[in-house]
């Protein structure tokens, strides 16, 4: 039965439309289970009925004509319970209703399985048997699995309008949900892109001449580097200088020791170039895949993209040029930055990916280019949308396929409003982030891309509030030397001087292992990471601190930040090591200065010891992403529980207040970094609480500044006071939306003005 399941799933996925998918299901399931009848009823909630849409075994003329009132009969019971119902004699059940038009009165055995998507029952898959039959447990599981396969096809059919065409009176059009990655509204025609080569299909093979294989690999790397340079040259016409940092990051990954030396070593060990490349890319990508940090995990896609590009040249395959329509919506399962750069900017209207998030290079590049983007649109059947009209709502991560006139007209209006808002925001460039009653709150930048020449947002930010130091460690085959680290830190410190740069010490371990420093833990979320690992390995910590202190000589704009702190003892030990590194450098003749040192508050234990921590350090920085996850016990990257992740939860708000209270007792400042700091809605709360500065991604700077310059601190305190009386996150969000609408800024978080 497992092989039957695999074949049916493959056929359904390859179906050209919903009608074909339903036909495949009813035919194949009837045959595989040995039932006399297989049918599919879909729920039409707008017209309050269950409609027979496909059958194998009942009268074909009943399809589309047989309609049960919603909730009636055994079909209605399966929908209500949202679980399978298995009866050996359905006619004796009190909810049974005989439908003469179908010819089903001759059947006794009944198995109904709900078709569910995002907690909503879309329909029922039904099996019938002439004689009494209680279907076996493996048969029930088989049917439930196939019902889940139908859910995606039905959702897409609703969105595309296909289901409306199959019904007499139609239904309202719906959207496909995803993750908001780049704000804006995009209307255009879908162009589907796909990986240029299949790394996973490459076999191992012994090379006839390893030296020739090695040279072929080096040549392919040079070709890809040339492509990157050409794409960068084309993109720089439309991107700011700082946005071009993404191409620098790609070049560094391409030329990294891990990629080059790793592949050459495997070639020398007896594998041909494509096979050696496959293993190297897989090993490198696994490191990123295992990480909890969404930004770092997205780098696995970048590594695989590079591997495919190199493989394309190894296989001597040149991609055929794509003809892009005037308003292109680029669509794919995994879209690379190079594929985006290949589209002429004046033709690129939007980006849609079934995977990824706003932290992927694609999302970052889309924001830098001002292109609306939705990521993680998992219900989108990419193979069936080529050439279709599409709307991308980058504010809410929504995608409409083949929108009707009403939807198209409304989004056209919203796009015009959005263009006007973007123009208004640009007028805020270089103006202070100051409230209407004169309170100034600096807006800093979160950064840390590999070898950024000029990070995104450099000109607009007041400095760097969080500089991640992990990536230069991850792309190497060994720990970087003190000199190599110093060069990297010096670059960013010089770039922002005299503005402050807060450098977070190495935050690896647990879910972020290094390729050359492996660790395996049952629960990496609560494992050996951050300050815990660097204190256990003081030689790593001291080398990094020495490099940072040396990099700041003559600039004096350095601040150090300690991650994943959960006890005051960790802070005491870290401060001793920092002073030791400082004193050693002075003895060696370096004119270093002791920088301000801060602590990241990202675990509940640190919240309750905020006062004790503030007594020991110079400032506190709240990592709202991890703090929310730990407070709510929710992995926001887990689709089963991600909806429970909410930074407006009353517990999160009260934790922030407790941190500020503890810091205030010792006159220490508190910064907030993470998604909450870059959310225009949360600006009311953070400003009202008295947070001293905010640190965020470059794309959020002007939007948050707009809110700050439109309200008074007194008004923010009023909103906060009401928010603290709310008992759930939904109530807090509605309050903040109303507050934003009141000052005419609802368009910052939704389409329209």
UniProtKB/TrEMBL annotation:
Entries under Pfam families matching the protein: GAF, PEP-utilisers_N, PEP-utilizers, PEP-utilizers_C
Reactions this protein catalyses: L-histidyl-[protein] + phosphoenolpyruvate = N(pros)-phospho-L-histidyl-[protein] + pyruvate
Keywords for this protein: Cytoplasm, Kinase, Magnesium, Metal-binding, Phosphotransferase system, Sugar transport, Transferase, Transport
Principal subcellular localization: cytoplasm
Intracellular or extracellular location(s): Cytoplasm
InterPro entries found in the cross-reference section: GAF, GAF-like_dom_sf, PEP-util_enz_mobile_dom, PEP-utilizing_PTS_enzyme, PEP_util_C, PEP_util_CS, Phosphohistidine_dom_sf, PTS_EI-like
Residue span, GAF domain: 17-164
CC cofactor: Mg(2+)
EC number from the UniProt entry: 2.7.3.9
Family that this chain belongs to: Belongs to the PEP-utilizing enzyme family.
Classification via NCBIfam families: PRK11061.1, PTS_I_fam
Protein name in UniProt: phosphoenolpyruvate--protein phosphotransferase
Naturally occurring in which organism (per UniProt): Allochromatium tepidum
Primary gene name: ptsP
């Amino acid at each position: 039965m497992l092989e039957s399941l695999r074949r049916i799933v493959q056929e359904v996925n390859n179906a050209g439309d919903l009608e074909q998918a339903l036909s495949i299901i009813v035919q194949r399931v009837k045959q595989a289970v040995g039932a006399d009848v297989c049918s599919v009823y879909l729920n039409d909630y707008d017209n309050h009925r269950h409609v027979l849409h496909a059958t194998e075994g009942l009268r074909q003329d009943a399809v589309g004509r047989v309609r049960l009132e919603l909730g009636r009969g055994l079909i209605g019971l399966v929908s209500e319970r949202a679980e399978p119902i298995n009866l050996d004699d359905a006619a004796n059940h009190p909810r049974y209703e005989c439908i003469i038009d179908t010819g089903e009165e001759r059947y006794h055995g009944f198995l109904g399985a709900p078709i569910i998507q995002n907690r909503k029952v879309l329909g029922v898959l039904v099996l019938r048997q002439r004689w009494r039959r209680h279907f076996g447990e493996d048969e029930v599981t088989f049917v439930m699995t196939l019902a889940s396969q139908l859910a995606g096809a039905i959702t897409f059919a609703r969105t595309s309008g296909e289901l409306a065409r199959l019904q007499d009176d139609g239904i309202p059009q719906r959207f496909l949900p995803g993750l908001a990655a780049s704000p804006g509204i995009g209307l255009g025609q879908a162009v589907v892109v796909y990986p240029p080569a299949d790394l996973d299909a490459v076999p191992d093979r012994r090379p006839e001449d390893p030296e020739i294989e090695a040279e072929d690999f080096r040549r392919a790397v040079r070709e890809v580097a040339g492509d990157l340079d050409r794409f960068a040259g084309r993109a720089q016409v439309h991107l700011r200088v700082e946005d071009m940092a993404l191409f620098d990051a790609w070049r560094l990954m391409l030329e990294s020791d891990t990629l080059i030396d790793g592949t050459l070593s495997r070639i020398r060990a007896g594998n041909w170039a494509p096979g050696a490349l496959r293993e190297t890319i897989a090993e490198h990508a696994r490191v990123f895949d295992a990480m909890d940090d969404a930004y770092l995990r997205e780098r696995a896609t970048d590594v695989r993209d590079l591997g495919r590009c190199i493989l394309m040249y190894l296989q001597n395959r040149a991609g055929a040029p794509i003809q892009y329509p005037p308003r292109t919506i680029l669509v794919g399962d995994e879209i690379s930055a190079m594929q985006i750069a290949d589209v002429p900017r004046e033709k690129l209207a939007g980006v849609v990916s079934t995977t990824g998030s706003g932290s992927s290079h694609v999302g970052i590049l889309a924001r830098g280019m001002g292109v609306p983007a939705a990521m993680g649109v998992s219900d989108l059947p990419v193979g069936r949308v080529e050439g279709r009209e599409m709307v991308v709502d980058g504010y809410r991560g929504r995608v409409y396929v083949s929108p009707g006139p009403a939807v198209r007209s409304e989004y056209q209006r919203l796009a015009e409003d959005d263009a006007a808002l973007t123009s208004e925001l640009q007028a805020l460039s270089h103006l202070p982030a100051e409230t209407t009653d004169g309170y100034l709150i600096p807006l800093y930048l979160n950064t840390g891309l590999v070898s950024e020449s000029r990070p995104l947002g450099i000109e607009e930010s007041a400095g760097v509030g969080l500089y991640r130091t992990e990536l230069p460690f991850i792309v190497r085959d060994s720990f970087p030397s003190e000199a190599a680290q110093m060069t990297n830190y010096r670059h960013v410190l010089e770039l922002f001087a005299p503005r402050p740069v807060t450098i977070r010490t190495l935050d690896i371990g647990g879910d972020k292992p290094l390729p050359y420093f492996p660790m395996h833990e049952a629960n990496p979320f609560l494992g050996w990471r951050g300050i815990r690992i660097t204190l256990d390995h003081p030689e790593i910590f001291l080398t990094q601190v020495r490099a940072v202190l040396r990099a700041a000589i003559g600039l004096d704009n350095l601040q150090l930040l300690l991650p994943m702190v959960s006890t005051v003892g960790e802070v005491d030990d870290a401060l001793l090591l920092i002073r030791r590194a400082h004193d050693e450098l002075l003895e060696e003749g370096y004119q270093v200065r002791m920088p301000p040192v801060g602590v990241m508050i990202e675990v509940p234990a640190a919240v309750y010891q905020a006062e004790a921590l503030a007594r020991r350090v110079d400032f506190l920085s709240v990592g709202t992403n991890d703090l929310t996850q730990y407070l709510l016990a929710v992995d926001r990257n887990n689709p089963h529980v991600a909806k429970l992740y909410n930074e407006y939860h009353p517990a999160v708000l009260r934790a922030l207040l407790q941190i500020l209270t503890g810091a205030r007792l010792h006159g220490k400042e508190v910064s907030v970094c993470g998604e909450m700091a870059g959310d225009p809605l949360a600006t009311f709360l953070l400003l009202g609480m008295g947070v001293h500065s905010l640190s965020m991604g470059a794309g959020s700077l002007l939007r948050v500044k707009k809110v700050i310059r439109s309200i008074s601190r007194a008004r923010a305190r009023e909103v906060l006071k009401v928010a603290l009386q709310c008992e759930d996150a939904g109530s807090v969000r509605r309050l903040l939306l109303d507050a934003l609408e009141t000052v005419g800024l609802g368009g910052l978080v939704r389409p329209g003005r």
